[in-house]
Structure prediction request, 216 residues.
Amino acid sequence: MRNLACTLPCVIGLWLSVATAPSFAQAVKGPPAKPISGPPAKPAVDEKSAGVPLPAGYRIGADDALTVRFWKDADLSGDVVVRPDGKITLALLNDVQAAGYTPQELAVALEKAATKFITDPSATVIVREIRSRKVYVIGSGIARGGVIQLNDELNVLQVLAMAGGLQEYADKSNIVIIRKEEGREKRFKFNYNEVVKGKNIKQNILLQPGDTIVVN
Prediction:
């Protein structure tokens, strides 16, 4: 019994030393798992070249400056300006309609057109500069008539301020906003004196591209 009591701890100790050896642990655990490989991820757009902030409901228009990028295909990529006819021209793709599309919709259209030349194309459209969203301020009663870029949501009062404000002799109670909708002309009345006093502020509407403000 004394010899057995002495032998049992020795056997347990020997087994533990073998079990904790690197070769034994490797045999139990098996070889290290290999990383799962797959196609490389599409690179994110560089923040410095992510384009200008887009106003709500923005759609591409004539004169807008765009960057088109095809992943892994520099030949099809490039900087373009939307022509007056609403189209852009890229190498191989020739003329592609751009005006009226959102940047995402245009990217899909470009990918479809590029399938003739590359396999599984992936396009990104970046808006570098918005030049198509314009409103016009005219009339003898405005300080600086001309074109105002509508790159954000702006109301009548804000655009009048951007145009230098009203002349002293301006007819402030009879300002008119002219808008074309579905080929028809629509007119809105704007009383400057009422709006600045906080009265009938509903007439201080948000302007849309193509609107004309007339101040006499």
Q: What stands out?
A: Confidence is low (pLDDT under 50) at residues 24-28, 35-49. DSSP finds five helices and ten strands in the chain. The longest helix spans residues 2-19. Helices lie at 2-19, 22-29, 103-114, 156-162, 192-196.
